[in-house]
Amino acid sequence: MTADVVTDVLVVGAGGAGMYAAIAAARNGADVVLVDKSLIGRGGATIMAQMTVAAAVGEQEADHWTHHLQDTLEAGRGLCNGELAAILCEEAPIRIREMEDWKVGWAREGNHLKQVMAPGHQIPRCVYADFLNTGPAVAKTLRTQIGRADNIRRAGELTITSVVVEGGRVVGAVGLDVETGAAVTIDAKAVILAAGGLTRLYRRNSASVNMGGDSYALALRAGAELVDMEFVQFFPIGHLAPRMVGMDPIMWDPFRYKLGGRLLNGKGEEFVQNYGHAEVTDKYTAPRDVVSFAILQEVAAGRGSPAGGAYLSFEHIPEAELRAAFGPVIDRLADNGIDLTKRGIEVSPIAHYHMGGVRVDAQMETAVPGLYAAGEAVGGANGANRLSGNAIPEAFVFGERAGRFAAAQAVGQESGWSAAAAAAALDEISSSLDVSATHSGAGLSGMLVELQELMWEDVGLLRTAAQLERALARIREMRAEIGDHPADSDHRFALSMQDWFDMRNSLLCAEAIVLGAQRRTESRGAHQRADFPLTDPAQAHNLVTRLDTAGLTVTQVPLVSHDFELVPLEAAE
Amino acid sequence: MTQQTVNPEVARLRVQRGGPNDDPILEEFEVPYREGMSVLDALIWIRANTDSSLAIRYSCTNANTCKECMVKVEGKTVYACTERLGTVPVTVGPLTNKRLLRDLVTDIVPPKEKLSALLGRDAD
Predict the structure, then answer these.
(1) What is the CATH number of domain B10-123?
(2) Quick check: B109 and A156 CB within 8 A?
């Protein structure tokens, strides 16, 4: 039987990485289908990006990609995949200029791109679009390019539930049409997983609703490997209070880039300098892992702000300066009852990004031929802690490569579609339509809340063996509770069915994080163990996760290093 | 008509339920009120705690960038994520100028970004 849709390359996820992958695959001759469980170009993390995009374009000050690489490796606390990190830094300027050609509208000053300093960078390196508009500008630009390519077809509200593998290689995928609750089969010679990260697993998060770990779970179930799953980045100064609507909780980051600001504990004292990094007032330099840990410790010591975080204060900055830096954003704050000249706001760590992810080679291909990954879905480039500004260039660079190499493999290749290989995945969807039992009440949407609470409390910023053990036991119970297919269907706009597939993916990812966190008996970057507070030089290796019939297994592998020589900046001019 | 008890800790929403071929009904929900909460906060709470079959569409949740959560509140078109909820009961319904899919979800998807178009093109 033939599939419902036939293409060369299927791209799963239509954020920055997925859209770039689709564009690259199409211009390399492939017929492309781009799908997203949300709407095209609207879901995912990219559109929520507030500001910084790191790239050694060297317009404002002399720079060279090897210096960006040095900063990336330093932030990664010794665990970066050196090869992927080098690709990211070397190709970022090419992609930034391509986006400029596509009229993304990077902020300019005089005759050059404006570049700001961000924590962990040695020089001002980050381009952006004003005001707090990097994500929307990027998404709109890529969506326009997608619309111009006649060999990219696209569909929103299609949830890919399984990648189909036959004879050891990818032959397509099965998805759930959310509008009708029906199954859809897609014959594809290559599949690119670009469905982002897993920060929705945590109670406090900055995630879109579709960031529940789909990329990782799809990869595992297709036979691919994950790497560094224990490293979840907590953004230190997520908005906590007062309640603010219509603004991303990450928005204080750009305020600090432009204006500095002061981070204060509940007693009104600066404290970050007490945690091993001398952050100076009005200079935003302390790395994310250090600041998150510092806030957590202040709260634990009874020196938190009323809502359980820290104060971020711009009270010493004149209103005119605030308005010059953020224009209309100041009015949106006023609508929320926030006047930065009058009082500080409260901030706290918030799950923001996943360093771990799908294990790929330099062509973005997994161990399963025909299965690729791009963007946040990829693990390894950022090691134990991501450098600020690296997420959007990662989406562009890895997206472009995944699309290009997938096209090279897929174009001209015979279809390997097998209805038999897709049968199990189809049954999961169609069997739910026959079952008379319907759930009522909270259902799986309520279970997600429980999982988020569990991950926040026991697998969050500071972990212990006892907490991880407790979390693992409950996660495994939940995996058993949800069964092996959705309990019912709404048919029209089948959110309950999608909840089940989401939950299956999220629980698998949650278990993978816990297993990695148990295995890593040290503190390094974003992974902090209260019972192993020091970094152990003997654990400078990566942990790889696989799924087999016995369940998830974790093994250690040597680091992927990459020799490079720092090019002197005088030579880079 | 009925007497409204004012409880500062509860927000009340009357939410339109049903598909395109059903007679729409207004179902009343109570959610714990938190100062500054949005209509979307309340709808997400209902799905997690009271009735997960409620159909809503949203993605970015709080940033007002995805623009997917447009609904009618008291007959006015708003984004559910930026519309503040008070302790006075409000009526929430779907957009009226778009094809209704179910409950609060309407067909706002551009024609070239829909699965039906993708399948149609494949059929010919």
Answers:
(1) 3.10.20.30
(2) yes
